[in-house]
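S1.2 Input.
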Amino acid sequence: MQRRTLLTRGLSATLVASPGLGALLAGAASAQTGPLKVGVLIPQSGPAGLFGPSSKNCATLAIEE
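S1.3 Output.
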C-alpha cells in the first residue's frame, strides 16, 4: 500500500468516526468574517525592479475586481 493511500484512508476514517472533528474543520474553513488580507511580494529594486510597477498595477487591478 502506498503512503498516500494509507494517509487518505486514515484521515477519511478519522473524519467519519468523529463527526465533531469533521464539523470543526468544515466550520473553520467558512468562519471568515472580516476582510481577507493577501500579501504580494513585488520587486522594487535590483535587476527585477523593472517588473515592480507592472506587478503593482496587476495587484491593484486584482483588488478592484
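S1.4 Remarks. Residues 20 and 37 are 29 Å apart (CA to CA).
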